[in-house]
Design brief:
This protein is α/β, with parallel strands linked by helices and 343 residues long. The protein has two domains: 214 residues, 2-Layer Sandwich (Nucleotidyltransferase, domain 5); 104 residues, no CATH class. Helices cover 56% and strands 11% of the residues. It contains ten helices and six strands. Strands 1, 2, 3, 4, 5 and 6 form a six-stranded mixed β-sheet that branches. Helix 1 crosses helix 9. It is elongated.
């Protein structure tokens, strides 16, 4: 099958269609009594985007490439000195470790009149056109102007000495990618979307959810717990997370429905459950390692939050099907389950 066929299919069904497919797989396994709701293991990781490590100067240089593509489609000659820009780009690569801000200021000086020229030509393209392709070009032109205006504001903040910029734009190809830090020594910062995961103690992936940026894990816990309950049609016997989700409110949430809640400290549960909770917490890291290194969750090949969501749902299907196959090969499925699965 040609890869473009799958690409068209993915775009046609969208995240809603992919979610229906994943839900059908999960429901089939659930009805066959394969997936248990004994324990909920929750954690968040980063779904990396396929982008080059971003620098402020690289983003400005990439902006000229984006403008050049639209200019070519609109049969318009570039309105900046492309030869001079390329010369300065080469000079930056030879000296970027010693004069980053100097080059950033220089490229921003070149970028400002180019962006103004883009906006002027957009007004010219606003005349009524019958050609559908040209109308699509106008829409993409407007979108590019909005993105480059954000890039300009971000660059001004950087030149003014700002080190932490909220919702920082790191790619002109994946506009939803953000810098995310998860407490690792290497890499200290990853670029993509936050991926919130829940598993059961068997290792089945119950829910996945993607977020732009790095939301506070304490605020994610209630919604994720509810999604787990909705999907499994019952609350788990116990909930296991790390310290990032820990708060007095979360520990007491649905206290009457959940037997115990472990949030990174053994004292959270009675002695009878401590060993099982510590083991489950260690298992969570293993499940995520398998997902990222063997099941495609290491990097999304689709762009944007919509693309990351589709990528997560597709890989969730693969993850759970591989888990069933593993149990089948180990003869860990009951006779009743095998009959329900027609195996």
């Amino acid at each position: 099958m040609n890869p473009s066929t799958l690409c068209r299919f993915r775009k046609r069904v969208g995240p809603e269609g992919i979610s229906l497919m994943e839900d059908e797989v999960f429901t089939t396994l659930q009805r066959a009594d394969v997936i248990e709701a004994d324990m909920m293991l929750m954690d968040a990781t980063v779904l990396d985007s396929p982008i080059i490590y971003p620098t402020d100067v690289r983003l400005l240089y990439k902006a000229f490439d984006k403008m050049a593509i639209l200019a070519t489609e609109g049969h318009i000659e570039p309105w900046w000195d492309a030869a001079h820009l390329k010369t300065r780009w080469r000079a930056y690569h030879l000296d970027r470790n010693t004069a980053r801000l100097t080059y950033l200021d220089e490229f921003y000086t070149l970028f400002q009149p180019a962006l103004a020229g883009l906006q002027e030509r957009l007004e010219h393209l606003d005349e009524p056109l019958d050609n559908r392709k040209e109308n699509s070009l106008k829409a993409r032109w407007r979108q590019l102007v909005d993105v480059l205006n954000l890039l300009g504001e971000q660059t001004e903040q950087k030149l003014a000495g700002e080190r932490h910029i909220d919702h920082r734009l790191v790619s002109l190809d994946d506009l939803d990618a953000r810098p995310i830090q998860k407490g690792k020594s290497h890499p200290k910062t990853e670029f993509g979307t936050t991926l919130q995961l829940t598993f059961n103690r068997q290792g089945f992936m119950i829910t996945t959810e993607n977020f732009i940026g790095q939301p506070n894990e304490k605020t994610l816990y209630p919604g994720t717990l509810e999604r787990f309950r909705t999907r499994m049609e019952t609350y788990p016997g116990g909930a296991v997370t790390d310290l990032g989700y820990r708060s007095a409110k979360n520990r007491q949430l649905h206290h009457d429905d959940i037997d115990y809640v472990f949030m990174g400290q053994s004292a959270d549960v009675d002695e009878a459950h401590q060993a099982a909770c510590r083991s489950a917490r260690s298992a969570t890291e293993g499940f995520i390692a398998v997902a990222k290194n063997l099941r495609g969750f290491g990097q999304s090949l689709y762009r944007g939050l919509v693309g990351a969501t589709i990528w997560s749902r597709l890989n969730q299907c693969a993850y759970n099907l591989n888990k069933v196959l593993q149990l089948y090969r180990n003869e860990a499925l009951s006779e009743q389950t095998l009959r329900k699965l027609r195996l």
